[in-house]
Write a structure and sequence with these properties.
The complex is a heterodimer of chains A (about 260) and B (about 220). With about 260 residues, chain A is of the alpha/beta class. Chain A is built from 10 helices and 11 strands. In chain A, a hairpin with a 2-residue loop joins strand 1 and strand 2. Chain A starts with a strand and ends in a 9-residue tail after the last helix. Chain B contains 6 helices and 14 strands. Chain B has a single domain, classed as 3-Layer(aba) Sandwich (Rossmann fold). In chain B, a hairpin with a 2-residue loop joins strand 13 and strand 14. The chains are: A alpha/beta (about 260), B alpha/beta (about 220). Chain A: GO terms for molecular function: lyase activity.
Amino acid sequence: MLKTRIIPCLDVKDGRVVKGVQFLELRDAGDPVESAKAYDAAGADELCFLDITASHEDRGTLLDVVSRTAEACFMPLTVGGGVRTVSDVRTLLLAGADKVGINTAAVKNPDFVAEAAEKFGDQCIVVAIDAKRVSVPGEAERWEIFTHGGRNPTGIDAVEFARKVSDRGAGELLVTSMDKDGTRSGYDLALTRAIADAVKVPVIASGGVGGLDDLVAGVRDGGASAVLAASIFHFGHHTVGEAKSHMAAAGLAMRLDP
Amino acid sequence: MSEQTVAIIDYGSGNLHSAAKAFERAAREAGLDDTRILVTDVPEAVTGADRVVLPGVGAYADCRRGLDAVPGMVEAMTEAVKTRGKPFLGICVGMQLMASRGLEYEETAGLNWIPGDVAPLEPADPALKIPHMGWNTLHLDREHALLRDIEIGEGGLHAYFVHSFALRAAEPADVVAHAEYGGPVTAMVARDNIAGTQFHPEKSQRLGLALLGNFLRWRP
């Protein structure tokens, strides 16, 4: 039986982990490769690097991190952030990423998703959707795509956009609620559910996890195939193993390989 | 065991560096320190190798075109596998290429080593997502050396899958293991000295490294 995936996400800037990973006894908590190895050993089902390096010129540092991680960890790795061209996708895949996350470039030009999927296969194209609720209480729920960390509205309906990019060949959607991100109050389950119901491809829930019940809800109520979390793991509130046991106890199918 | 060379065929399909690293680690863990892992696009290196691996990610037709674009490579693989009887492992689309034909986007001829078609996944439950993506268990259809000492079945170890198309073997005896995803999905095939996995052993942690270790010791 296919299992629900838990995906820790590390923000990487200039080749270093931002915010650090505190629970692990690492010699260098800022080294993404060390953190990746620890998550690999802890039983994470996949790993995600989000590159938040400001300048495009510093890409070499990220590529080095990706290739060192791929050499050390035999688990699937998604890398996103600043991916604008087919050549960016190729470079990351050649460095050792298994999947590449596309965000702003897909919003600006959904055909870029088709171009990348045709070249490299649907399976390695993840479209990252950052959405904010724009409906007021009492009206039908509606979310809009925002770019630049939630600052710039686009006027694009999030569910429509999800349909569009999955039709164009996205193999998976990473759905982040910009309202919930960083609040530790749980995923936006209505958003996750609305998109999961609208598309055929798997949806990863993201943004707002505060506790283990939030992970359960993301799957059970949000319809997500995978759950992404950052701070609850990095700051040692919970281990990946605890999260898996908790989700399994709630009746979800989890991979509990030793 | 004596020295051996494993050729991983490089035909422009994705990153082979991490696959090579996985084979190197599997060799170390299996105590096969004299194993040399070679990522190569040179046909002579493939005919001369002791074992041959064909990886592959992406679309079927693209992969086939990529393989054909390396002059003499299909002939070299055929020579190594069919004439010299070298152990061969196809991974993901590399496994699918062993079929008679692929039906992804357009009809494409395969190598026809394992008769059958590569067709879209059609799970009985329409709510199941496509691609079939993530960790699934394996169910044994027949014993095979590559799965020796690996705990499989519903309570066993997991393999990492990511695909929307799957091989439908014409001969049931070619299927070694399947996964359950709204019905059986071919997970591993084998015939004589050739074997192939739909899942990615190089991404499948314990199960994967054990399978690669078995491949490196395989004497078909």
